Amino acid sequence: MPNNSRNISDQLISTIERFRPFHDGNDKVWHFFLKTGRTWIGLNVRFYNGVYYCNSDNVSCEINGYGPVRPEIERQLAIWLAALDAWQKEVSRDPLATQQRLLRNLPLQHRFGLILRSNARRLFPEWCDFASNLKNVSRSEVESALERHSPEPLPDMTLARYLEYCRIAYETNPDTFAYSPFISGKSGMEYYTSYADGRHGGLLDIEPESPAAFSAWYHSNQHQGCHPWEIYRGGNSTHISLAVSKHPYRSGWQIALSAFSSTRLVEACRIAWALDQAGMPVEIVDRESYLLRLRDEDWIGILPEGCGISYGWHNFPNDYKVADCMYLSWFYEKKSPKEKAALRRILRHLVHWLPLRFSCEPAGN
């Protein structure tokens, strides 16, 4: 008895392979914008190591040629196959006119774009309101701290010195640790033990006042695979680090504050300000990006609906220095149909839409 799911997946791959792929390193990649009835679908396919990875909005699957796919995925493959067949017929009749129609009719929510943060906040004022969240520190005070030149290297480093940096970093953001509750006046060691990642790799076991002990620990492999500098716990992109390293160009040490995610921007800026007030030199890894965000001068990435937002900035050229991303649908929330239509006309021209790359050339050309 024939396996229908295997048959549909084979037909789908055969249809995809009729289009010339793009190349990303050794991977073959296809991008399609397909219409099924009144609904548009963005379908991306990547062939890597013998497997076709298919992603369409919030649906994804792998096709490897070794077994059937799940029934719910089989139904999705059938939808993709029918839409791809229709796209191929259109392209084969008149490739230029077909591309023109696609670019004219494709809904904006399927496109990548850029909008100035100042304009995004005019349309959505409550989004990323950094200045208000700084609370008892003014934006100008934070900007002054961020504008300081890179500090001179520290001649030596000890655990005690590092923990004093940590003490200030914790005490400037008590609301972050309100779940504990946070108690002022503790030592840096007590705060670090309570709020850091915990995988200190032996850092807390060395002689606190000894530069030699710190240097020996730093140059050992004892902390390999550990997170001694993660002073505010979080995920890969949502923690705050206060990292010690040898200065890259001069003799001595440096301490660097880093937290790229805007979910930690206010806390990181308050730490930078507090250390500056205490006269404790620190390198701010994302200094320029912080200033652009605080001043509403940077670009915000507009993502297609369904595209992952946590690392959405990876989808944009580095020249634009994108740190935050949004979906167009966020602007439409709580708007009437009439307001949505007017806003859609504004956004069509206010957003700088990135060029679209989609598969339309026949394979072998």
Task: Tell me briefly what this model is.
The protein has 365 residues and is an alpha+beta fold.
**Biggest sheet, spatial arrangement of strands:** 1-2-3-4-5
- Distance linking N and C termini: 38 Å
- What Rg, in angstroms, do the CA atoms define? 26 Å
Question: Could you estimate the helical fraction of the residues in percent?
Answer: 25-40%
Specify the overall morphology. Answer: elongated
Q: On the 0-100 scale, what is the average pLDDT? A: 92
Quantity of strands, as a count:
13
Instruction: Give the amount of beta strand, in percent.
Output: 15-25%
Number of helical segments with 4 or more residues: 13
Summarize the helix and strand pattern as letters.
HEEEEEHHEHHHHHHEEEHEHEEHHE
Largest sheet: 5 strands, antiparallel
Q: Which class do the helix and strand fractions yield?
A: alpha+beta
| Residue windows where pLDDT falls under 50 for at least 5 positions | none
